[in-house]
Amino acid sequence: MSSHKELIRKEIRCQRKKLRKENKRDMDEKILEKLLALPEINQAELVYAYASIDGEVDTYELIRRLWIKQIRVALPKVEGKEVFFYIVDNFEELISGSYGILEPGEGCRPALGIRGPVVTPGLAFSREGVRVGYGGGYYDRFFCREPGHVRIGVAYPFQVRKLDCAEWHDWKVDGIVTPTEVIWSEPSDRTLSHKIRHGQRAGIY
């Protein structure tokens, strides 16, 4: 299963590198417009986001526009094998952290237990909400600790594909925003995955 995921990760990274700057910029703007139009985002008091890197859908303009709308933003910080989110008020509060990703510096307030949508990174998504991340499991562990957040992936069209590689510990996203559409997975799919994860865990070990 993990080798299949690695092949997907390699393929998507390769496709992202081939994107022309103008094409990427145009798709980023369309994704941003759709994100900001979602009531889950524009009516939130706090949005969990991340600092994009390595050809990902750009999130810096999203963060900036959320601040303009006076919506608070929390960004992730890797601590050991876990990721925790901290409220950030400006880009100057960010420092280079794990994997070279910008993350909250000292003095940023933790966002523990504050309900809000999570703009969730990923390399591939299915229309049913299955997500292939980067392999560290950080977001899966975060969602296990705090399952009440709405999880929203952002993706270029080639990142949305049929996926048959979900494992028991993988958390699905509730929605995916692309340049052309917003895809919401069926509530029954999300409920089923939650039941499998929490109700059948003992039988899997």
SSE topology sketch:
Layout: H1 2-17, H2 21-37, H3 39-42, E1 46-48, H4 60-68, E2 72-79, E3 82-88, E4 94-96, E5 102-104, E6 109-110, E7 118-120, E8 124-125, E9 131-132, H5 138-145, E10 151-154, E11 175-177, E12 182-184, H6 187-199, H7 201-204
Parallel strand pairs: 1-2, 7-10, 10-11
Antiparallel strand pairs: 2-3, 3-6, 4-5, 8-9, 11-12
Structural account:
Strand 2 and strand 3 form a beta hairpin. The model is unreliable at 191-205 (pLDDT under 50). The chain has helices at residues 2-17, 21-37, 39-42, 60-68, 138-145, 187-199, 201-204, and strands at 46-48, 72-79, 82-88, 94-96, 102-104, 109-110, 118-120, 124-125, 131-132, 151-154, 175-177, 182-184. By secondary structure, it is an alpha/beta fold. 35% of the residues lie in helices and 21% in strands. The protein starts with a helix and ends with a helix. The strands form 4 sheets. Strands 1-2-3-6 form a 4-stranded mixed sheet.
- SS summary, helix count: 7
User: How much strand content do the residues show?
Assistant: 15-25%
Q: Whole-number radius of gyration?
A: 16 Å
Structural class: alpha/beta
Write the element-wise H/E pattern from the N-terminal end onward: HHHEHEEEEEEEEHEEEHH
Mean of all residue-level pLDDT scores: 89
Largest sheet: 4 strands, mixed
Number of strands: 12
Low-confidence stretches: 191-205
Multimer state: single chain
Q: Percent helix among the residues?
A: 25-40%
Strand order of the largest sheet: 1-2-3-6
Ends distance: 17 Å
Global morphology: globular
